[in-house]
Every structure is written in structure tokens, then in C-alpha cells.
Amino acid sequence: MRIKRFSGETSLSETLRGGVVAIGNFDGVHRGHQSVLDRALEISQDANVPSLVMTFEPHPRAIFQPENAPYRLSPASLKARVLEVLGFDAVIEQNFTRDFAGKSADDFIQHVLIEQLGASHIVTGFDFHFGKGREGGPAFLMEAGKINDFGVTLVDAFRDEGSQVISSSRIRSFLKDGELGEANSLLGYHFTVSGVVVKGKQLGRTLGYPTANISLSDDGGLKTGIYAVRFRLDNGKLYDGVASFGIRPTVEDNGEPVLETYIFDFDGDIYGQTCQVSLVSYLREEAKFDGLDALVVQMKDDEAEARQVLSTISPISPLDQAMCFNG
Fold it and tell me: What is the pLDDT, as a whole number, of residue 223?
């Protein structure tokens, strides 16, 4: 990964100071976020200065409302990958703690934006708030920019083709309901998960369908079922496949959801590799079959359907081209 990743406590090198900084959670890096990020890239290119993103880890709601923490659309490493594809030089993954949240808005301006980042321009959404009790808002930020000589650009909410605001919560709702096409449309690329390939019971191998198994660290927001997918190895090579996400009711496993991908036309040992799986189409719901023979018959049908679907897809956007098509 070429993009530079920093924690919030790390001092930036002189080559990255004085840049344009886009600020936000950017969970999912969806089309609404991309409108903010694209504006930051435009300003940095015009000024010939570095382009940076400041985001927050973990999601603030995980600190203040852990029982109601949102399903993460893009954990930090995957978010960094998307930001790299978009063209950013660095991402600052600010460690979000209660102490950090207790900083005053003035502290955030002086210690983070000015001293730590040396920002020349801030780009964020029109409703960005910061500081203890959310005391800092758009007007506060713009006034601070005038006083401290950095530019501020606020970007309006981005709406979809139906004039609805694109949000991470809408995408989470679509994913939970299996409405993958709608989720991908709002993202502007095919929804992608990432994880380490681990050994399972290797039942698939005995059935003629060896799978790459990934235990997702946060799986509560994805509907169980069968998906047509694009599978990217850690060396960047891309394959088509069909994936099952669920509890494998036919073989009576332990009930913990696992993403199992049968990779088409591939035979190799990838245990321990961190791989990415892009979900292209939701094929059907998970089901319990009357024995392994019936399961294999259905798996063959799933494979045929996935191959057909994947043979006809095209990129949603240039970002999608890079994420899910360039192998």
C-alpha cells in the first residue's frame, strides 16, 4: 500500500505538512463522501500541496454508545485502500477516545489542525461538528480559518438520482436486507470486505468445492446468503468466485457466520493471506438441504449462475474499475 497511514499522535514529515485535509468518518467512502474527497483533491492539485484525510478510529459511536455501534462498512485498512485508489497521499487515523472527544474546539484547531497537521486548507461536510459537546461547527471553523490563515471549504450533502441524501446508514440498511445492487449504487463501487484466509473443516474440498474462508470481525450487518464475488489475493491478482456467508445449516457447524469463497479456476495455498472480497450480486438466501448430495447440486447451480452474472458486469465508476476489475 503506497498511501501513508498515521495515528493521530504521529508528527507529519515536512513533505506532508501544509496540505489540504479532508475531515470526516467516511465509513464506506460512498459517493457522498467522495464529493467531499474529490473537492479536497481538486484544491490540493490546484495549490500543488499534499492531499490528506483525517478520519477517526474507532467510530465515535463505538465509544459513546457501544451497544449501538454501527456495522463498519470500511474498517481502517480497507478505507485506506479506497483513499489510495482515489489518489490521496496520506490518511491520519485519529485515535478517538473520551479524552480526545473532551478537547475543546479551540484545542482541536490549535493542536490538531495547526500544530500537528499544519493544514493549509480544510474540506469537510456542511454539518461537521467537533470539540467537547460539539461546540465547534461550520461557522466556528470558518472563523478559525480566517484567524489562523487556513482555507475552509464546506461541501453540501450529496443526493442520489432519487434526490435522497446518500448516507452510510442507508447503505447499511440495504446490505442487511440483501439489497446489494442498491448498496453498491450508493457506494459507487462494489461493497468489499477484507480478512485473513483461515483453515476451516475443509468439507468443501471433499465435495469438489474448496473454499477460502474468512471470519469477518464485524459481520452483524451483512445478510446471510450466496453471493457472486470478485476475490483479490494479497498480490493484487483478481478472480471470480461464488461465496456463501452464513452458519452452514446443512453441515451443522457452530453457528458463527463465515464467508466461504469458491474461487473459479484457481488452485493454490493462500492460508494466512489478507484478501479482499467484492460482493457483486446477491444470488439467494442461505438454506438447509436434505443431505450433502442435494447441497452439491445446489452449489453447481450457484456456480453456474455466478459465472453468468460475473461475465456480464461492468464497472460502476473509475473507483470500481480499480477496486474490482484491475487485476
Answer: 92
- CATH code of the domain containing 230: 2.40.30.30
The cell numbers describing 307, all together, are 459465472
Give me the helices (H) in 131-207, please. 138-148, 168-176, 180-187, 203-206
Same domain (yes/no): 137, 276: no
Q: Let me know whether 36 and 136 are in one domain.
A: yes
pLDDT tens digits for 271-307?
Answer: 999 999 999 999 998 887 777 778 888 889 999 999 9
Query: Using CA atoms, how far apart are residues 78 and 222, in angstroms rounded to an integer?
Result: 16
| 166 within domain boundaries | no
Q: Are residues 150 and 194 in the same domain?
A: no
In a domain, 305, yes or no: yes
Examine the domain organization and report whether 11 and 129 are in the same domain. Answer: yes
Between 90 and 199, where is the model more confident?
90
Check whether 157 has a pLDDT greater than 80: yes
**CA separation for the pair 82, 23 (Å, rounded):** 15
Residues, the chain: 327
Q: Are 244 and 119 contained in the same domain?
A: no
Cα 283–chain centre separation: 22
Burial tier of 191 (Cβ tally within 10 Å: 0-12, 13-18, 19+): buried
113 and 47 in one domain? Answer: yes
Structural domain including 198 reads 190-324
Higher-scoring residue by pLDDT: 284, 204: 284
Looking at residue 207, what is its pLDDT? 57
Query: What Rg, from alpha-carbon coordinates, does the chain have?
Result: 22
CB atoms within 10 A of CB 207: 16
Looking at the 3D structure of the chain, how many domains does it have? 2
Report the C-alpha gap between 90 and 76 in whole angstroms: 13
CA-to-CA distance for 273 and 147, rounded, in angstroms? 49
**Is residue 91 within 8 Å of residue 55, measured between CB atoms?**
yes
